[in-house]
Amino acid sequence: QVQLQESGPGLVKPSQTLSLTCTVSGGSITAGDSYWSWIRQPPGKGLEWIGYMPESGSTYYSPSLKSRTSISRDTSKNQFTLHLSSVTPEDTAVYYCARYYSYSDSHDYWGQGTQVTVSS
């Protein structure tokens, strides 16, 4: 059973960089056929995919967020981290990490989500 847990600050000031870490247990972030995703849901809106990192360590980002997004990983800790720069109040959302599994073509494991508010 794969488990994911997000961690990071719940409040970020405008223009700063939002950083969230996802700790994975029960599976390796270097395992094949898995893509480790960040997804968010702003209040009153649907889910928005931010980007993901497959086992190779490559990165793929949403075109609308690409200029402000980076995803990194620490394989020794089985963690991957989202960095979103120059945040505005429009980046306020619940942020989720999740595993996309290519065989099922779906995000099959999710973290519980963490609320991030951008406010001065």
Structure, explained:
By secondary structure, the protein is mostly beta strands. The chain contains no helices and eleven strands. The protein has strands at 3-7, 11-12, 18-25, 34-41, 48-54, 60-61, 69-74, 79-84, 93-101, 106-110, 114-118. The strands form two sheets. Strands 2, 4, 5, 6, 9, 10 and 11 form a seven-stranded mixed β-sheet that branches. It has a four-stranded antiparallel β-sheet with strand order 1-3-8-7, with no helix packed on it. The N and C termini lie far apart (39 Å). The mean pLDDT is 96.
Structure summarized in a few sentences:
By secondary structure, the chain is an all-beta fold. It contains no helices and 11 strands.
